[in-house]
């Protein structure tokens, strides 16, 4: 998406000087301009961007090897200490490349449950979809049409919306 859209989103979210903004980046295979644009605008607002990367390949490997202590209280403290949590989604959340063993699937379920519960209690929580081929396919649209729709939906006057 265009960088100026992220500027509008950061302003509308009320991200302020001194805030710690945790970006949970549900990425595909490589870093995108979108995550760079978002972090740059957070920094320009005087806030600190911190990123937790949920790469598909790495997530698969972590979850295949996870133990009961892999995602403990210290991990979730990152989310609890954040002033704002942003899910930046280039792919569906929680999806892996292949099935896990039942015990590993149970651990993943517990992790995802606690993750969503922790994020839901934040003062500010945003979920932003990024136009990607994966997300377009999920919606049954061409990439170009999906990108145009997402940009049109997010490139709005947020002050006017708030007033309305």
Instruction: Estimate percent helicity.
Output: 40-55%
Task: Tell me the total number of β-strands.
Answer: 4
- N- and C-termini, Cα separation: 25 Å
Rounded to an integer in angstroms, the radius of gyration calculated over CA atoms is: 17 Å
Strand order of the largest sheet: 2-1-3-4
Q: So what's the oligomer here?
A: single chain
Total helical segments: 8
> Which class do the helix and strand fractions yield?
alpha/beta
Regions with pLDDT < 50 over 5+ consecutive residues?
A: none
> How would you characterize the largest beta sheet?
4 strands, parallel
Order of helices and strands: HEHEHHEHEHHH
What this model shows, in words?
By secondary structure, the chain is of the alpha/beta class. Helices cover 52% and strands 15% of the residues. The protein has a 4-stranded parallel β-sheet, with helices on both faces. α5 links the parallel β3 and β4. The chain is globular and about 50 Å long. It starts with a helix and ends with a helix. The mean pLDDT is 92.
Topology:
Elements lengths: L2 H10 L7 E7 L6 H12 L3 E6 L2 H10 L7 H9 L2 E6 L12 H19 L3 E6 L3 H7 L3 H12 L3 H6 L1
Parallel strand pairs: 1-2, 1-3, 3-4
Helix pairs in contact: 1-2, 6-7
Keywords:
globular, 4-stranded parallel β-sheet, alpha/beta, 8 helices, 164 residues, 52% helix
TL;DR?
By secondary structure, this protein is of the alpha/beta class. 52% of the residues lie in helices and 15% in strands. The longest helix has 19 residues, at 102-120.
